[in-house]
Amino acid sequence: MAKKKSVRAESSRNGYAGDTVPESSITSVMVEDRVFPPESGFSAEARVKSIKEYRRLAKRAAADPESFWSGIAEELTWFRPWKNVLKWKPPAARWFTGGRTNMSYNCLDRHLDGWRRTKAAIIWEGEPGEVRTLTYGQLHHEVSKFANVLRSLGVKKGETVAIYMGMVPEAAIAMLACARIGAMHNVIFGGFSAEALRERINDSNAKALITQDGAFRRGTEVLLKDAADRALEGTPTIASTVVLRRTGSDVTMAAGRDHWWHELMASASAVCPAEPLDSEHPLYVLYTSGSTGKPKGIYHTLGGNMVWSYYTSRMVFDLRDEDIYWCTADIGWVTGHAYVVYGPLLNGATTLMYEGAPNWPEPDRFWDIIERHRVSIFYTAPTAIRSFMRWGESHPRRHDLTSLRLLGSVGEPINPEAWMWYRNVIGGDRCPIVDTWWQTETGGIMIAPLPGATPTKPGSATLPLPGIDADVVRRDGTSCKPNEGGYLVVKSPWPSMLRTIYGDDERFRKTYWSNYRGWYFTGDGARRDADGYFWIIGRVDDVVNVAGHRLGTAEIESALVSHRQVSEAAVVARPDEIKGNALIAFVTLKAEFTPSPELKEELRDHVGREIGHIAKPEEIRFADALPKTRSGKIMRRLLREIAVSGEIHGDMTTLEDLSSLEKLRDGEEE
Ligand code: PRX
Predict the structure, then answer these.
(1) How confident is the model at residue 643 (pLDDT cuts 50, 70, 90)?
(2) Which site from 149, 158, 162, 405 is most exposed, i.e. has the minimal number of CB atoms within 10 Å?
(3) Distance between CA atoms of 534 and 482, rounded to whole angstroms?
(4) Has this prediction a pTM greater than 0.85?
């Protein structure tokens, strides 16, 4: 094992407005020089066996991207071949134009002719402990039936279906059924509140909602149908809902609108040929946070997304027929789309889904699952890894984890300590770790090691995948020198890039394409080291990663000011050992109200109701006034400094009212 450990990462961020890159530079002071070459045994069996081979592939892809992409797309089934691989008029991209295909066909029907018909497609474990296995043949049967159910409810090609479910196989069935008939799915994370659900349903004009009575989580029930009922009080476009019975608890069923899943399925035909769809036909919209209060509907289309999920799963996880692959992400996030459902099924792999919490009934639940199901590939988030570290080694040590052959990480920068722990304690010092950088917008993994080829460094996502033209640039667009912090951009189009923000082309253009002409701006700060390895520093906009959830501070602020006692709010992040970041809200009240500890709790609950429990601030601090520039902008940089260190070091020359700051710093705000 390589040596050395002296690590500290830091970034300076400022109030980025979304359409201009920040003024201040990004400093990265991370020092990490351990290198782990791939194990020779792993490389010998891998799809890409050496860094030389990676470089050859990357060179070939850069020299002739179109033939590179079409070579991959040809491995999947198309009902009609494409005319052009790419039509690119920045920022509008169209991939595999004129081609016709179907995601559900490629995930299911394609595997039915041979032995995979009886292979496990999904192994599901419920939190209470029951296990269900669906073979490719069975999954195809269920998906075909549910596709007919959707049609019987009047859902048409091109229309939107909202899915608000927990981690149950039916969530995957619903997604695949939408894809089969060409309906666009909009999966809304089950942790979102009724208000958040309503906003996302309305923004996407969803015609139907698929939900369930409740979901099991940490021994209790999350009442999904109850929240859905409240959301549906203000969703004019929803004509019908389908409700899966999961927990068996009482729910109210609205006559004419609400239908039980099992009743509709009982009479549905299992014959439903996959609809041949244009390559640019909508596949899904998925809402994510940006730097304004309104969530962004990230819009992905069929052909490019399918090719990318297929390719990246093969390359990065080196997926094999023998693998039992487990990605712990929820289906409500993009990782759940690309790497719980589509990527593994496109590759004919076995994907494991688990319904509940990692520490239920005991903190060893994940290791127990790995041992019992002989999981070989495990893909999770740094925040989870840090929790496992806190719970202690004794939990994984009690279990046989020798079935594992590859580990993955996603969602936020992984600190080298967590990386090393993951490698030693979970991976038995033998499994490669793939730290995968990507975003909801990119549709799939962009920067990651190829496990048989790329030497890894703890904390680095390493190198772009072949075909991805990523760089770290200065504000003026020139490339940064090695180890100079800058902005992460992608300079050429790739198949699964977002096509737009649903219903808001202008915001799409402004957010991603206005900073650098023709290049995609990620919103992340990064540096490349002397070997060209990428080290992601973090967001440079007002987006924060809390326990792997991407949250816009503006969204939380607008939730806070919707409370009748609140006048103004500013939300900033403070580094947190487990969650990566914790949210601190500075709140001023309307004159007639007084701060109290009860009000703090009430405000936290209010955010929980408006957005969901994931968005509740860790801490609420009341203030008489918030520090503002003379032009009235809240100086978040100062608040961030107060939240992090209690001190202010930066330039305060533009501050309007110094006394507000003094009070915040002295903790006199209450
Ligand atoms: O800041 C980056 C961080 O997560 C952001 C994307 O969040 P989201 O769209 O919710 O997608 C999460 C799953 C892909 C990025 O802009 N991020 C994601 N993966 C990594 C990461 N930061 C560092 N290293 C990663 N591997």
Answers:
(1) confident
(2) 158
(3) 10
(4) yes
Strand bridging mode 377-380 / 324-327: parallel
Residue 206, burial from CB neighbour count under 10 angstroms (0-12, 13-18, 19+): buried
Determine the residue type at 583: L
Rounded mean pLDDT, 98-108 = 98
| Per-residue 3-state assignment (H helix, E strand, C coil) for 368-397 | HHHHHHCCCEEEECHHHHHHHHHHCCHHHH
Domains of the chain: 95-355 (3.40.50.12780), 539-666 (3.30.300.30)
Look up tokens 């961020």; give the residue: 13
Nearest to 576 by CA among 612, 608, 617, 607: 617
Helix 194-203 vs helix 224-231: crossing angle, to nearest 10: 50
Q: Is the pLDDT of residue 410 over 70?
A: yes
pLDDT in tens, 575-628: 999 999 999 999 999 889 999 999 999 999 999 999 999 999 999 999 888 887
- How many Å is the Cα radius of gyration of the chain? 24
* Contact between 587 and 548 (Cβ < 8 Å): no
Pick from 333, 410, 534 the residue to mutate for probing ligand 1's pocket: most ligand atoms within 8 Å of its CB: 410
Q: Count Cα atoms within 13 angstroms, Cβ side, for 384.
A: 24
**Is 410 close to ligand 1, i.e. is its CB under 6 Å away?**
yes
Question: What separation in Å is there between the alpha carbon of 525 and the centre of ligand 1?
Answer: 11
Closest CA relative to residue 227, chosen from 151, 184, 164: 164
Dist. CA 440 → ligand 1 center (Å): 8
Which amino acid is it at 495?
P
